């Protein structure tokens, strides 16, 4: 049983730079919390403060309800898995996994049974006599996981553990990590800048920007109801289309001056996801929908679907269509999005309406 609670955690580096500006997150027992955000948003700093590798300027970090601010990293009973694996190159896989236990003076027999049991779970049993250089990237990553698991810690921390792997392996390891975390039931905090990895792994997703939490919640809730234009454009690929609105005589209007009757009065930005629009070559105008005349600039087939990159009244938008796109560059068409699929944001970029 372990919970991780952060309360108004801040980090000011000696240079005076405030990398984390007051973050509160509660990770329930056995859940996987993913911190995601662009480079420099403070996610690694936050993880390192949980690990005890970085001092906490103010606020508290508690594990199982006990504040650990002044407790050293080794006493926090946390295991960390890094991007560069941090394996000892001259040691065999077995010894890499046994290292932490030996340091703690665990009896030899117990070390042996724990290492072998963990190796079995991770399908590393046949590789225990190899050295890291004799392993593939995925196998090395598994050894790094094994070294963390074998200690049976209360909390796992992952710092971009998959970013050195190629796309296919990353996808496989993502599933493995999720399954492993679930079956072991170890409370975890995972840092990544990859929004897809974040979406698929997280029980709780925390989107960070410039040292602050922009939004926190279940991944699909965040996808469906992004709290800000920042979140809307960070979560989802290709990102949500965001169009600026001006204030026309009869309410918010598009760049071509056309009023959108069903827009909230204070809407400054309109958003819709690439999959939430259809394209039509016809002239009929469905009521209660956004209709944008657009010109195709590029059609990008990716297999089961295609992305149409279009110019619409001075804006660039992307629409996802199923299968192969029949539209070609230069084609004029209309992009239609139902009113209930639209997102509205105010002048500060905050979401309007539910
Ligand atoms: P990335 O994905 O690039 O690793 P991140 O979100 O993990 O980014 P951090 O490493 O937490 O970001 O850094 C947050 C901010 O703090 C950055 O602007 C960084 O330049 C700054 N920073 C990090 N370490 C220090 C330090 N030791 N002294 C001063 N500033 C630092």
Explain what you see.
By secondary structure, this protein is of the alpha+beta class. It has two domains: 4-233, 3-Layer(aba) Sandwich (Rossmann fold); 239-352, OB fold (Dihydrolipoamide Acetyltransferase, E2P) (Beta Barrel), CATH 2.40.50.140. Helices cover 24% and strands 33% of the residues. It has eight helices and 21 strands. The protein has helices at residues 43-51, 93-103, 108-121, 137-149, 167-184, 195-201, 219-224, 229-234, and strands at 4-12, 18-27, 32-36, 58-63, 66-67, 78-82, 155-159, 187-192, 204-209, 212-217, 241-244, 246-248, 251-253, 269-272, 278-280, 289-301, 305-312, 315-322, 332-338, 343-345, 351-352. A six-stranded mixed sheet has the order 6-7-8-3-9-10, sandwiched between helices. A five-stranded antiparallel sheet has the order 15-19-16-17-18, with no helix packed on it. A hairpin with a 3-residue loop joins strand 16 and strand 17 (305-312). Helix 2 (93-103) crosses helix 3 (108-121) and helix 2 (93-103) packs parallel to helix 4 (137-149). The radius of gyration is 24 Å and the shape is elongated. The two termini are 35 Å apart. The mean pLDDT is 92. The protein binds adenosine-5'-triphosphate. Adenosine-5'-triphosphate is lined by residues 13, 15, 17, 19, 37, 39-45, 193. Keywords: ATP-binding, Cell inner membrane, Cell membrane, Membrane, Nucleotide-binding, Sugar transport, Translocase, Transport. One of its GO terms (molecular function) is ATP binding. This is Sn-glycerol-3-phosphate import ATP-binding protein UgpC. Residues 4-235 form the ABC transporter domain. Belongs to the ABC transporter superfamily.
């Amino acid at each position: 049983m372990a919970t991780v609670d952060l309360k108004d955690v801040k980090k000011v580096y000696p240079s005076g730079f405030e990398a984390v500006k007051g973050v509160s997150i509660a990770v329930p027992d056995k859940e996987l919390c993913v911190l995601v955000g662009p480079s420099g948003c403070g996610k690694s700093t936050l993880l390192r403060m949980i690990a005890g590798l970085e001092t906490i300027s103010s606020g508290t970090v508690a594990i199982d309800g006990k504040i650990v601010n002044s407790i050293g990293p080794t006493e926090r009973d946390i295991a960390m898995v890094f991007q560069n694996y941090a394996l000892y190159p001259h040691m065999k896989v077995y010894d890499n996994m046994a290292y932490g236990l030996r340091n703690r003076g665990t009896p030899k027999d117990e070390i042996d049974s724990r290492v072998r049991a963990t190796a079995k779970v991770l399908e590393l049993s046949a590789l225990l006599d190899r050295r890291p250089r004799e392993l593939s990237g995925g196998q090395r990553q598994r050894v790094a996981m094994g070294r963390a698991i074998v200690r049976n810690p209360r909390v796992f921390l992952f710092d971009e553990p998959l970013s050195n792997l190629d796309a296919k392996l990353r996808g496989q390891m993502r599933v493995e990590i999720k399954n492993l975390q679930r079956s072991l039931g170890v409370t975890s905090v995972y840092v990544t800048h990859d929004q897809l990895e974040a979406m698929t792994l997280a029980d709780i997703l925390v989107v960070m920007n410039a040292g602050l939490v922009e939004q926190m919640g279940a991944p699909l809730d965040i996808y469906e109801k992004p709290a800000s234009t920042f979140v809307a454009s960070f979560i989802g690929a290709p990102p949500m289309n965001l169009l600026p609105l001006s204030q026309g005589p009869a309410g918010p209007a598009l760049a071509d001056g056309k009023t959108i009757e069903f827009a909230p009065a204070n809407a400054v930005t309109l958003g819709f996801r690439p999959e939430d629009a259809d394209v039509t070559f016809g002239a009929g105008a469905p009521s209660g929908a956004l209709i944008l005349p657009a010109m195709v600039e590029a059609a990008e087939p990716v297999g089961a679907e295609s992305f149409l990159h279009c110019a619409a009244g001075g804006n660039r938008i992307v629409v996802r269509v199923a299968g192969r796109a029949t539209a070609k560059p230069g084609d004029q068409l209309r992009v239609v999005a139902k009113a209930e699929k639209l997102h509205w944001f105010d002048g500060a970029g905050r979401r309007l309406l539910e």
